[in-house]
């Protein structure tokens, strides 16, 4: 999957499509942020569950 995103980024840079590349970069950053927030939420739920036991 990482190769897929890497190829998209390389194609956008090769085509000198700055707007498309920036859109791609912002989208990738948002995906990473969502992943981090989900991981933090799961961690918080686990900590809360441990405190209740």
Please describe what this structure looks like.
By secondary structure, this protein is mostly helical. The chain has one domain. 91% of the residues lie in helices and 0% in strands. Helix 1 packs antiparallel against helix 2. The termini are far apart. 0% of the residues are buried.
Strand content: under 5%
Helical residues, percent: over 70%
The helix/strand series, from N terminus to C terminus, equals HH
What does the radius of gyration come to? 17 Å
Counting DSSP H or I runs of 4 or more residues, the number of helices is 2
- Unreliable residue runs: none
The coarse silhouette is rod-shaped
Structural class: mainly alpha
Number of domains: 1
Profile the largest sheet: none
> What is the number of E strands?
0
Instruction: Compute the average pLDDT.
Output: 86
Give a summary of the structure in a few sentences.
With 53 residues, the protein is mainly α. The chain has helices at 2-14, 18-52.
Which keywords apply here?
53 residues, mainly alpha, 2 helices
Please give the structural blueprint.
Layout: H1 2-14, H2 18-52
Helix pairs in contact: 1-2
């Amino acid at each position: 999957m990482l190769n897929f995103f890497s190829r998209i980024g390389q194609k956008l840079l090769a085509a000198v499509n700055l707007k498309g590349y920036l859109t791609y970069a912002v989208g990738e950053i948002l995906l990473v942020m969502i992943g981090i927030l989900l991981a933090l939420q799961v961690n918080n739920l686990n900590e809360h569950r441990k405190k209740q036991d």
